[in-house]
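Subject: sequence -> structure tokens, single chain

Hey, anyone have a minute? Need the predicted structure for the following. Not urgent.
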Amino acid sequence: MLVIDGTNLILGRAGSFIAKQILNGSEVHVINAEKFIMTGDPAVVTNRYLLRRRAKHKGTPEFSPVWPKNPNMLVRRIIRGMLPWKTTRGKDAYGRLKVYMGNPKNLTGAQTVETAKFTKPIKHITIHQLCTSIGYAK
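Reply:
Had a minute. Here:
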């Protein structure tokens, strides 16, 4: 079992590492999912996710993709996009991913992904700020 702390990690880089680990058969628990960082202008990032939430299938709106507002579910959905979702291998791997806000089970031995550390002072937004701006109310 691998525990990854999302505090000050860039979501895309850490997400690709997590996707590789669960595809290789490891069970991964991600804690502090609301503290992941997305780089870029916060207004542009927020607008991109608002547009994704509004996208609807014209013929049958029930077939539209679902983008959650909760930070832990949004991180889980973003990592799902990095998996071969339409195969059994991808769905089995997705089942090995657990994402938590905070550290509810007091998991110890959390690792950080060195290549995903956020160090440069550039424009960024945390997942919690993003979710709050698209309608998350906690």
